[in-house]
């Protein structure tokens, strides 16, 4: 246990001593007096996420979460603005008790430790997903304020797709592309981008999956890691949930839930009536865009950020890409290329 100015820290820490002292002093100053219970404050480090944030649970009553979120690497203003917008629409997110924008320090409500992922099985999934989909419906009623939520535009979609070649194909697999392959990727990226832009647009969490949904002590579902929310395609978060990169379900179940969600959107007049086949195409191709991007992101997290655990999740993402790309005529060339050229190199990797 490490102690600085009366605060104690359990476990290892990667903060510099100067930053550590400053962070501890700030936490000490801003933990509400009524939460202290006359105890020495202890910060217990928690597992991080895909970003650069560091989390600590404080032994207050109730417990709080202290966050070191480097302002040169994380958009903390966006996190606060989006938090307030979601909370105003009764979407459960952590309350913010204090924030220091200059240093990137935050003091948040502790939602507990129960992620949705380990609770999901064939007996529970329908109930939990029904509730999660209700949150997605509520998110469509959040005002699409472009001063808070940037647009998920053509440039953003293209930048994300480019991660596939750079980090998955070139860096992870050590493969170089022929000019004909580059042309083919340009064509599939165009198909996927047009699919995203042609859909009705609304508020998109961008990482709406079972590791970013929590079950609180009061048995509510709550959201975390939403600071990158945008105005984007109506199917994006739905495919993040139903084609989760960390857990898979049968296509029959996924399609059934997707069409049920479409009916709920239509009943709320969030979208106009759309044929089932058209909606599933939106959904499938949105998933293909997301999973191609994720192959690049997970590779970058492993290679650049030393977060190698993400490599264990690549096989499911590869399966999603293989499955959808072989279902549609305008993705079939990419699918055959991926199956013939990329997949054999992937399976030979020793992750």
How would you describe what is shown here?
- The protein is α+β, with helices and mostly antiparallel strands and 351 residues long.
- 46% of the residues lie in helices and 13% in strands.
- The chain is built from ten helices and eleven strands.
- The chain has helices spanning 17-30, 76-88, 125-139, 154-172, 179-198, 236-242, 251-267, 276-303, 314-325, 332-347; strands at residues 2-4, 7-9, 42-46, 54-58, 64-68, 96-100, 105-109, 201-204, 213-215, 221-223, 230-233.
- The strands form three sheets. A seven-stranded mixed β-sheet has the order 1-2-3-4-5-7-6, covered by helices on one side.
- The longest helix is centred in the last third of the chain and has 28 residues, at 276-303.
- The two termini are 35 Å apart.
Radius of gyration: 21 Å
Query: Can you list the strand order of the major beta sheet?
Result: 1-2-3-4-5-7-6
The counted number of beta strands is 11
The ordered string of helix (H) and strand (E) elements is EEHEEEHEEHHHEEEEHHHHH
Low-confidence stretches: none
Q: Which percent range describes the beta-strand content?
A: 5-15%
General form: globular
- H/I helix tally: 10
- Computed structural class: alpha+beta
Helix content: 40-55%
Which characteristics define this entry?
351 residues; alpha+beta; seven-stranded mixed beta sheet; two-stranded antiparallel sheet; 10 helices
Topology:
Blueprint: E1 2-4, E2 7-9, H1 17-30, E3 42-46, E4 54-58, E5 64-68, H2 76-88, E6 96-100, E7 105-109, H3 125-139, H4 154-172, H5 179-198, E8 201-204, E9 213-215, E10 221-223, E11 230-233, H6 236-242, H7 251-267, H8 276-303, H9 314-325, H10 332-347
Parallel strand pairs: 2-3
Antiparallel strand pairs: 1-2, 3-4, 4-5, 5-7, 6-7, 8-11, 9-10
Helix pairs in contact: 3-6, 4-5, 4-8, 5-8, 6-8, 7-8, 8-9, 9-10
